[in-house]
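Anyone opening a protein record will find just a pair of labelled lines. A complete record is shown below as an example.
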Amino acid sequence: MGYTGDGFATMLLTMALSPNREEYARPYSTQEYYRLEQRVRQSCYRSIGDLMGVDISGLMMYLDISEEEGYRIFTLLNRGVQLGYSIENFLLRGVEVVTIYNEDYPVRLRKKMRDAAPPFLYRCGNVSLIGKPAIAILGISGVKTTPEVRDGVVSIVKSAVKQGYTIITGGELGVSRVAAGAVLEHGGTMIDVLGGNLFDHMTYEPIDALLKEERMAVLSMEHPEAMFTVSHAIARNKVIFALADAALICNTDNKRGETDALHNRYCDWIYVWSGYPANRPLISRGATPVADLRKFDVAELSRHWQGSSSEQLNMFDLL
């Protein structure tokens, strides 16, 4: 994959080059990156790529920033050799990096998340699936998957496959793994958006099989060897919502970005299973309750997702 100067500078400024984030300078967060990008546009520079080759004093002068911030930017932008080695190593293992400056960066993320969209993504598999009609099925690990939930997820996957929808999950144990098995068995396609452990996830049996059959794409914002964390999962879930036409939450701890997704309309249609007590706060905030997962009618509901200009009403519309 080719990168423009802006794309390469974006990776230098935002990517962690080690899984434990041992860096001479801390990479920019998404919010910090977009603030810097705006500052650059207001300066004498045309774009973020123009910062490459500028010394610390120049950065301080033309961006009106402190010496400490100038040193941080300068240090990050001078990791080109290390970044090149990292990208080469990722490619050898089937993973590439796409930035907001690449034409094939997911359009849905630009549209839905705007200046909260990840500046870059790791990806592997059949990336042509990204952006096609999709249903997200979400659940957290550590929660026992009851027969009712397992049967419901399998039923939804089978129905979604018949209607031509790709399934999106977070790749965690529990609901996501049930969905992966159902997709593999019933001939569907799938996208996993991860909060860590990308390389390990690629070796999990159903995922490996789906990747080999070109029925799978995997995305992550974290270094492919980085461990899963809840903070990673929060950022990941926002991407999941933005990529999906509709999302169904089977279980949650209400700490995975769902409220933010409702507030910011990352996904226009968010459904929540009412059989899990911790899901109730989301229903009170405007998510649509689902009493029986096995009766979640994709064929009927998708008429709203595709053909209706109306949107799900949530409590934030009333504030």
